[in-house]
Amino acid sequence: xxxxxxxxxxxxxxxxxxxxxxxxxxxxxEPSVLPxxxxxxxxxxxxWTVWLYGTITWxxxxxxxxxxTRADGARLMTSILIASATCALVFVVFPxxxxxxxxxxxxxxxxxxxxxxxxxxxxxPSNCLPSLHVALAWGIALTWASALKHRRVAWLAAIAWxxxxxxxxxxxxxxxxxxxxSGMIVGVFAWWAAAKLFPGSTxxxxxxxxxxxxxxxxxxxxxxxxxxxxxxxxxxxLDEVDWPTGPLPPLxxxxxxxxSELIYIEEIAGMNFAILAKASTSDDLRALYGYFADEERRHxxxxxxxxxxxxxxxxxxxxxxxxxxxxxxxxxxxSDADVLLIATANPVFETMLDAGTVPFLRTHxxxxxxxxxxxxxxxxxxxxxxxxxxxxxxxEAGQRYRGLAGLSLLLNPSIYRGMxxxxxxSLDVYSLAHAMGYRFETLMPAFGKLxxxxxxxxELRGFPLWSVFRVFTAAGAIATIVSARLxxxxxIFVRFWTAVTSVTDLFAxxxxxxxxxxxxxxx
Length: 523
Description:
Layout: H1 2-28, E1 32-33, H2 38-42, H3 50-53, H4 56-66, H5 70-93, E2 96-97, H6 111-122, H7 132-147, H8 152-171, H9 179-197, H10 218-233, H11 253-279, H12 283-309, H13 319-327, H14 336-355, H15 357-363, H16 370-400, H17 404-407, H18 413-435, H19 444-451, H20 453-456, H21 464-488, H22 494-519
Parallel strand pairs: 1-2
């Protein structure tokens, strides 16, 4: 529900941006006043119809709340944007104005006339052709009706509402008659274009539909075949680790929170690999990603066993991990944009995990032991194979999506939602680790390695998606340097930042609750 309301609010915000663009043009250039036709004069002035005219805001909200699938949501958002952008373009090129003074409001003691007066005060008479109101009504109605095509009553109601909106633009004297059919044409075009851009049952745009993830370089094919045999040979089980009998002494609550966050990071990596396995058309790649998904789940279950030995249970995820877990609803294995985002993100986060938190846990006094050292060595060995395969995939993607061709991948909304989640993930992990003695400087070699990776792999230089991760790497390095210096100066207030994570944890529980873990099978 909250997501749908958020998408409705976003669609209104973008609509207002296009609307403002059109109004700006009318303010700069003198709008044309079209002549009233016999049809314009024949339509009566009915101020009470302003109440019907104003339903577009709330009907659009109802449409967002009732569309069945994410694909329908993508089509609805796209139809709104196309209708708004098309009308704004015409407004810029050919601004027009309606002579409202011919239809004065003389009875302001009437609620309907007062409402229409408020509308006129907020909405200047410029930019009539085509009617944005009509374009939006038909775009929304047709998209909504298409989503509910098996419900005849709902379908008829949607079309009847669009017709009603079209009529009220005339009876409120907001538009000329010619504005209505032109607006309807724009709305129908917006609906048609949205259906073409998002065909089928997924929210993946047609231009980034994947033909399957595979390796095409001979060197990579041979390497993947060898890695598959190696991975098959060194699969292991948690029972091979010489776990102590327990119970062991209780852990610091901060350490419990940190290990819990790492468990979710491992689970997220496993779900990422499961998507990559599903996307793979190469037998070797599919098998490798299947092994990797199992390994990440094994790492998570091993960390759960560590907590259990110390009498602790896994805490709910913090805000960063919750946002990422929630994002899996939007990820599509048939989308090149999603698949390559995952393939690029995984090695970056595994590099940081190997460089930072895993070595820190290995040396922590409460965990330092031969059995835990053995467990961490197994994790590290697994991760090295993960990195090797992912860099092969990313290098080939960099060659295939160089320059302008790769810009389409940056239209993926998951990138920008990830930009919101990653800082919270970092806060959840590193503020807790620092409170227990972690030194930020240990991350710098990993940041340097990632920043310079394009020198080792030339294919990454022109890969726009990798450029996004380089920006994050630079931001992370700067934040690390600043944090390290503040820590040395005694100016980084550990209690404050751990308290912040407690607040964001509470926010995550209130917003997502246990249902998110249940949805992902992590309870």
